[in-house]
Amino acid sequence: MLGLEKKDFRLLLIVVALTMLAPFILNPFPEGSDMAQFNAGYPDLMQRFVIFGILAIGFNILFGLTGYLSFGHAAFLGVGSYAAVWMFKLLSMNVIPAILLSVVIAGVFALIIGYVSLRRSGIYFSILTLAFAQMSYALAYSVLTPLTGGETGLQPKPGDPRILDGALAPGETATPGFFGLFDMRDSLELSVGSWVFTFNAGYYFAAVLMIVAFYVSIRIFRSPFGMMLRAIKSNQTRMSYTGLNARPYTLAAFVISGMYAGLAGGLLVSMDPQAGAERMFWTASGEIVLMTILGGAGTLIGPVLGAGFIKYFENIVSKINKTTLEGWFYWLPDGLEDFVITLIYPFVGKGWHLTLGLLFMLVVIFLPGGLVQGGQKIAAAFKRKKPDDAKRSATEPAE
Amino acid sequence: MDQIILQILNGLDKGSAYALIALGLTLIFGTLGVVNFAHGALFMMGAFVAVTVSKVLTLSHKVVDESRTDFLGNPLQVDVPYLYDWFGQSAGDAIIDWAVPISIIVAIPIMVAIGFIMERGLIKYFYKRPHADQILVTFGLAIVMQEIIKYFYGANPIPTPAPSAFTGSFDFGVAFGFDPNAIIYPYWRLVYFFFSIFVIGAVFAFLQFTTFGMVVRAGMADRETVGLLGINIDKRFTVMFGIAAAVAGLAGVMYVPINPPNYHMGMDFLVLSFVVVVVGGMGSLPGAVAAGFLLGILESFASMSAVINLLPGINQIIIYLVAIIILLTRPRGLMGRKGVMEE
Question: What is the predicted ipTM?
Answer without folding.
Answer: 0.79
